[in-house]
Each structure stands twice: as C-alpha cells, then as structure tokens.
Amino acid sequence: SYFFLNTLIYTMLFIGLAQSWNIIGGYAGQISLGHAVMFATGAYTTAILFIYYGITPYLGLIVAGLVAAAVGLSLGALTFRLRYHYFSIATLAASLGIYVVFLRWDWIGGAVGLAYPTAQIGDSLSFIFESRQIYFYVMWAFALGTTVLVYRLHTSKLGIYLKAIDIDQELAENAGISAFWYKMYAMGLSSFIAGIGGGLFAQYVLYVEPRILLSLLQNVEFVLM
C-alpha cells in the first residue's frame, strides 16, 4: 500500500540520517542539535542546481554532500572550542539563526520554498520517479551504504580516536590525539552524509522550504533517530 511503502522509504532515510549523526554524536561524543542545517543545505543545493541550472541530481547529490560538509566544517570550527551543553546550545542557536535567514532569502524561495517542475516526473535523468518502489531501493541503498561505512569506522583508527575523545578528551590529548582536528574529520564526514540525505529527501517530496527542513523539531529528530 502507499502508506506502508511511504513508511519504509522514510525508515530507510532515517537510518542513513541516524548513522550520519552517530558519527559526530555517538563516536565523537559531540551532541549536535544543529544537524538540520547540513540536511537542509543538501536539500536546497540539490533542488537549486536542478530547478535553476538544470543539473541532474545524480551530480547534484554529490555537490550537495560537499556543500553540506563545507557548512558543517565551518560550524564545527566555530563551536568545537566549546564543551558539553555549551556546544549543543551553540549548534542549536546556529541552526535557528540560519532558519530565520532562509525564511527571508528570496533567491531560495523564502518562506514559500521551491517546488520541482511536475513535468519532469517520470524522467529518470531528473531522478524523479513515478514508482515509489524505486525510491525505496534508493533509500535502502543509502541506509545500507551509511551503515557499512559506520561499521568500518568502528574499527578504524579514526573511530578509535573518536571513541577515546568521547571517553576522556583531556587524556586523549595528553596521548597525542588532536581532539579538535579529529572532531573536524567526524563533522565533515557526518555532514556529507546528512547533505546527501537532504538531497534524497528533496528528490522524494519534490519540495523544499525552511519550516520542513530547519525547524526546532527537525534538529531534535536527528537525536531521536
């Protein structure tokens, strides 16, 4: 049924997004409440490239991930000097500030948002499919890919360093681990995945606007996932 298939599609998407947050929140121990910024960046990047410039989402999704990673690294550079709940509050404040900016930014549609051209539905080059079953397989591949990536991260040197930072950052730094730079690595990778997830979400719903992508609830949902 439509309801069951739609639920499965969102489940697969949420698995991928949860793994994205798991890298920075679970392994590095940085409780980010602003991850919706990277999710929204990916969604808007994919939509703008396609709607304004006709760039296929097959390429747009990669660009979305890279732009989201750049935004995440910028946010991390500004907030990683903070610790514990101060970091969480700073990331949430940044997200809500960007939400206000997006509401008033006419080029990206402001509060009205951007809608995909319905004439492109069914065109495989536009990554807009009539069958929702195809979207399920796309989201399933996204969930599987991110889960395998995090599984590999678990036993990698980066994963071990991030877990050490989470357990005791001062002790890890005394052992020669640069906590700031390894947290930046984690933020970049986490943001890249969140950006691709945002782009996939935009391709599925064919509409982007700030209240869907950047609300307070959206930021909390990443932690709940």
Explain what you see:
Helices cover 75% and strands 2% of the residues. The chain has ten helices and two strands. It has a two-stranded antiparallel ribbon with strand order 1-2. It is mainly α and 225 residues long. Helix 6 (157-167) packs across helix 8. The longest helix has 27 residues, at 179-205. The model has no long low-confidence stretch (mean pLDDT 92).
Summarize the structure.
It is built from 10 helices and 2 strands. By secondary structure, it is mainly α.
Number of strands: 2
The oligomeric state of the chains shown is single chain
SS content category: mainly alpha
Total number of helical segments? 10
Largest sheet: 2 strands, antiparallel
Strand residues, percent: under 5%
List segments where confidence is low: pLDDT < 50 over at least 5 consecutive residues.
Answer: none
The percentage helix is over 70%
- Spatial separation of the terminal alpha carbons: 24 Å
User: Average pLDDT value?
Assistant: 92
Give the spatial strand order of the biggest sheet.
Answer: 1-2
User: Radius of gyration over alpha carbons?
Assistant: 18 Å
Q: Note the overall shape.
A: globular
Give the topology string: H per helix, E per strand. HHHHEHHHHEHH
